[in-house]
Design brief:
By secondary structure, the chain is an alpha+beta fold. Helix content is 39%, strand content 25%. It has seven helices and eight strands. The chain has helices spanning 2-22, 26-47, 61-66, 70-83, 89-98, 159-171, 202-206, and strands spanning 103-110, 114-121, 128-137, 144-153, 176-180, 185-188, 193-199, 221-227. Strands 1-2-3-4-8-7-6-5 form an eight-stranded antiparallel beta sheet. Helix 4 (70-83) packs across helix 6. It is globular, with a radius of gyration of 37 Å.
Length: 232
């Protein structure tokens, strides 16, 4: 009888201990719930529709735009703002300096034509070279205006098409296109200016009084803003 009593005394603590071990751990339960919650959050994100990239409607449009470097686009913008009387000689010189093109500024003056300020780049960029600008002022130097600015772009396939597309976007209602071809583009702008672009032939390259060329440069595209000459 005494032995049986001692045996039951030992059984009850063992049962209690087993019941404790079988109880779910509160901390573990919380950790599992947090992990489940995080998993659900990730699942919600993953199940959301992926945001699509915006692509140009014309597959060639992006290629054509990329044919023009930021320097070329900046010069075209400067030309258009000059035609609208919103740019100056000092702004051109400052930009040429900041873009590493090392502008050279020279002056010429006589009593008949007044003063001419000539600005030329001395260092070519990736695709732009021979930036050339002429500013005129009267004998009193009270008024200074751009008479001519031009630059060259290396000839590549579809560059003329890229020029047409980009100038059309930049020009907006400012000008009217008068010529549209693979060998000549022309716009009429305010204040008596015209903007044109064309590939140069060897004869035209040879006759250039300022720039040096070789036969490899045939097809170089000249972009020019200048005052239109009217013959009475």
């Amino acid at each position: 009888m005494g032995r049986h009593f001692k045996w039951w005394v030992l059984i009850f603590p063992l049962l209690a201990l087993l019941a404790y071990w079988s109880r779910p751990d509160e901390a573990s339960s919380k950790s599992f719930d947090m992990a489940k919650s995080q998993s659900n959050s990730s699942r919600l994100v993953a199940s959301s529709p992926a945001q699509k990239e915006t692509l140009p409607q014309d597959a060639n449009a992006k290629k054509q735009t990329n044919l023009l470097t930021p320097q070329a686009l900046r010069l075209i913008q400067f030309m258009l703002s000059t035609a609208a009387k919103q740019s100056s000689l000092s702004q051109l010189v400052d930009w040429l300096k900041s873009s590493g093109q090392q502008p050279q500024v020279t002056f010429d003056e006589n009593p008949h034509t007044g003063k001419m300020t000539l600005v030329r780049s001395q260092v070519a960029t990736q695709s732009v070279r021979y930036v050339h600008a002429q500013y005129l002022s009267d004998a009193t130097h009270s008024k200074e205006y751009l008479q001519h600015i031009s630059f060259d772009i290396k000839s590549e396939e579809k560059v003329m098409s890229a020029l047409r597309d980009n100038i059309h976007k930049l020009i907006g209602p400012l000008g009217v296109q008068k010529r549209d071809g693979d060998d000549y583009l022309l716009w009429e702008l305010p204040n008596g200016y015209i903007l044109w672009a064309k590939p140069l032939t060897w004869d035209e390259l040879q006759d250039d009084p300022f720039n040096a060329y070789t036969h490899k440069d045939v097809g170089t595209i000249r972009v020019t803003l200048e005052q239109e000459i009217h013959f009475d």
